[in-house]
Amino acid sequence: MKRILILGVSAGAGKSTFARQLGEKLDIQVCYLDGLNFKEGWEEVTRESFEEAQREAASGDKWIIEGNYSSTLACREDRADTIIYLELPLALCLYRVMKRRIRYHGKTRHELGGGCPEKLDRQFVRYIITTYARRKKSMRKRLAHYQQEGRTVVTLQSRREIREFLRRLDC
Known about the structure:
two-stranded antiparallel ribbon; 7 strands; alpha/beta
């Protein structure tokens, strides 16, 4: 595991936390896609700029890139040797998104850089709920494709599986 993509079924799946913990254990720098995509005030960068930043992040010998952004996945997926997919239950994902909103009220999470205070609106919650099943199905199809290409694919479906995976890295 040297070039790792961390994907998840939804917001709140734990991608950022898992990526940070994995990066610490493997001593590999983590790139958070939300941090590349948003400037101060939640203003999105241009697609060209976002894609270029992803290509640059994926150009090294060792990296962890966290985040889905399926529309720009081609910028980084070809260089990945390992894909770790977090598929936690919808209820847990929603709980975590709401917990994150409370925890970071008026603050910006470290993976976002500066000037993007945590927010949560009905539209985002609706997006999570209405796309969960479809994203789960499309991600599983994508993962099967990665496996056919000979890449290492790890699917973690519970907090316990995540803890166990990280614990095994200490051995």
